[in-house]
Amino acid sequence: MKPWILGLTGGIGSGKSAVAQHFIEHGVHLVDADQAARWVVEPGRPALQQIAEHFGSEVLLADGQLNRPALRARVFADGHERRWLEALLHPLIRQEITAYLARAESPYAILVSPLLVESGQHELTQRILVVDAPERLRIARTMQRDQTTAEQVQAILQAQASREERLRYADDVLVNDRDLDWLRGEVERLHNFYLSLSGGQP
């Protein structure tokens, strides 16, 4: 039986990493799209070579690793360059994710992605769980976690899909506005529900 795929997403500061961790504790196979995005640009992978050829050596560090801040500065300043990079990376990231999910041995597997909706990665899933929290709380959590300003967090919020858009795709919504014990209980409840589903559908 091939496991069905649950997409797990949520805006910055919603607590999706904590939720993902609780699912892992229940033995659920999980792949993180952010990690896949890092794997595809490791030294020795073709994507890194293409990026260096396109943007020049200033996007590489002395040890041959990708200089993320330099690349980010280039692509955020120029929509055309950003689209070039996305066209290169999105299919490769999708391949990594698909290969990793194919190795899952749990009854269902999870794809965690902050950009599940925006990147089209939701097409790889049979069901979507959105972790949500009031914006005020999300901003406070992120400022505390990243030692950053409210303005910087606001800028990231603007770049992500709107909360309404994410919720439109949701099959399940977990409002994470209480403590960790409560959250652990909610994940357990969802996990037991997911084990009863076939192909992600009741």
Automatic annotation (TrEMBL):
Keyword Acetylation listed: no
UniProt EC number: 2.7.1.24
Biochemical pathway: Cofactor biosynthesis; coenzyme A biosynthesis; CoA from (R)-pantothenate: step 5/5
Keyword Oxidoreductase tagged: no
MF terms (GO), sorted A to Z: dephospho-CoA kinase activity; DNA binding
PROSITE patterns reported in the protein's UniProt record: DPCK
UniProt keyword terms in alphabetical order: ATP-binding, Coenzyme A biosynthesis, Cytoplasm, DNA-binding, Kinase, Nucleotide-binding, Transferase
Catalyzed chemical reaction(s): 3'-dephospho-CoA + ATP = ADP + CoA + H(+)
Record localization: Cytoplasm
Family designation: Belongs to the CoaE family.
Free-text function comment from the UniProt entry: Catalyzes the phosphorylation of the 3'-hydroxyl group of dephosphocoenzyme A to form coenzyme A.
Database matches in PANTHER family: BIFUNCTIONAL COENZYME A SYNTHASE-RELATED, DEPHOSPHO-COA KINASE-RELATED
This protein's name: Dephospho-CoA kinase
Source organism: Pseudomonas lalucatii
Gene assigned in the entry: coaE
